[in-house]
Amino acid sequence: MPTSAPAKVPAPEQPGGTPAYGALDRYFRISERGSTLGREIRGGLATFFAMAYIIVLNPIILGSAKDMYGHHLDNGQLVTATAVTAAFTTLLMGVIGNVPIALAAGLGVNSVVALQLAPRMSWPDAMGMVVLAGFVVMLLVATGLRERVMNAVPFGLRKAISIGIGLFIMLIGLVDSGFVTRMPDAAQTTVPLQLGVGGHLTGWPVLVFILGALLTFALIVRRVPGAILISIVGMTVLALVVNSVAHVTTWGLTVPEWPGNPVDTPDFGLIGQFSLFGGFAKVGVLTGVLFVFTVLLSCFFDAMGTIMGVGDEAKLTDAQGYMPGINKVLFVDGVAVAAGGASSSSATTAFVESTAGVGEGARTGFANVVTGALFAAALFLTPVATMVPSQAATPALVAVGFLILSNSVKEIDWADYTIAVPAFVTMMMMPFTYSITNGIGMGFITFVVLRLAAGRFRDVPVAMYVVAAVFAFYYLMPALGLT
């Protein structure tokens, strides 16, 4: 199952010569992009299973924080808000943007909302600032500024962003599976990560991950259709069996056991609970603007990197790395940010786990329709949707990370140090700082500085100067006392 553009496979035809799924094929351009309905369905399933953890994790992050009045958000309502927003925005991206890029509450920005905004205002005030950030994103798209920024990124840096995302999701897979763990602070060591626990791989969950990774790569080597999805389903079944026999207690966030009651009733109580400008009365105009700017910056560049990386991997870009129809994709992303705030699930953004679906062959928005429908079903079947342990899903992230790296690294001009060094910084900083935004920001600043040092200031697009300056200001904000 290589990630290079698959040969165009004609849709199954009826006697009259019309594809059996003609209307879907024409609207989503499935055959035109060299895909099939089966690939799109498998891709949508793989993406959902790779990111279904957000239904559980986002409520934990937001629900553990208090606002300035000591109020917590209800966990059941957060589960509903997270699932319904992911379903709506993913479907919207599929139908309007026609790309296999799923969306859900963004990790990182939800911590900003929970730990920086909420403690200084009420929850509705904090979510109102997220909505404002979404409006600003939509305004930037409408004026063409966001697309201009993306088009100003040199080809080599575009490839570096893809590679950085590949390394980042590979690290996410290793950490979430327990194959790699954080060194305790008590160890007093400069080494942040270790193999397994105490430097050793022990326990059934890690074995499930290892077997899943080996199975995934073996199926890829054999070019078996549906390799990633087969691995996820197979390892989930194995985990269910292991857990029922061994009664494992170290699975982590999701325990693989069949729920006693697979159906749950959604609680929509948080939908619409936001105040657009209430937060400014609590923290002042300047601080409020900086809060919105912080959310905006994270959403803007996290999504930009993901869209560029997934679009490149899905072969939706042209020879120069540009994606036709990108404005629709970017506008839906802005709508998603605002929708996340309006539902109190925090800013919604593009998920790098979409690469799992792309690895299965997804090339169109119909994969998103499948993923979005599954998120909608999760409103009522949350216990079942969250049954897949991370050890069964994360091998897909490791495999896709490798495939992205192998396809993109050779396309960077390593002889031109003004591109090679920023590319290196970009791809390394994403996993090492656990942030797509940081990788992009540091790479952009390095690119501008090195081009100026080489006397090639005319080779730097104006938009790159502006964005590098914005990032420099963002990193200097703590030193200036503006956080």
Please give the alpha-carbon distance between the first and last residues: 47 Å
Quantity of strands, as a count: 4
Structural class computed from helices and strand pairing: mainly alpha
**Cross-sheet strand order for the largest sheet:** 1-4
Mean pLDDT equals 87
Share of helix among residues? Answer: 55-70%
Report the total helices. 19
> Total domains, how many?
1
Q: What fraction of residues sit in β-strands?
A: under 5%
The radius of gyration computed from the alpha-carbon positions, rounded to a whole number of angstroms, is 22 Å
SSE run: HHHHEHHHHEEHHHHHEHHHHHH
Low-pLDDT ranges = 1-18
Quaternary structure: single chain
Explained architecture:
The chain has 483 residues and is mostly helical. It has one domain. The protein contains 19 helices and 4 strands. The strands form 2 sheets. It has a two-stranded antiparallel ribbon with strand order 1-4. The protein has a two-stranded antiparallel ribbon with strand order 2-3. α3 runs parallel beside α5, α8 (155-177) packs across α12 and α12 packs across α18. Residues 1-18 have low confidence and may be disordered.
Structure described in brief:
The chain has 483 residues and is mostly helical. It has 19 helices and four strands.
Task: Please describe the topology of this protein.
Blueprint: H1 22-28, H2 37-51, H3 54-63, H4 75-97, E1 103-105, H5 109-117, H6 123-142, H7 145-152, H8 155-177, E2 180-182, E3 193-195, H9 204-221, H10 227-246, H11 278-283, H12 285-313, H13 326-342, E4 348-350, H14 354-359, H15 366-385, H16 390-408, H17 417-433, H18 436-453, H19 462-476
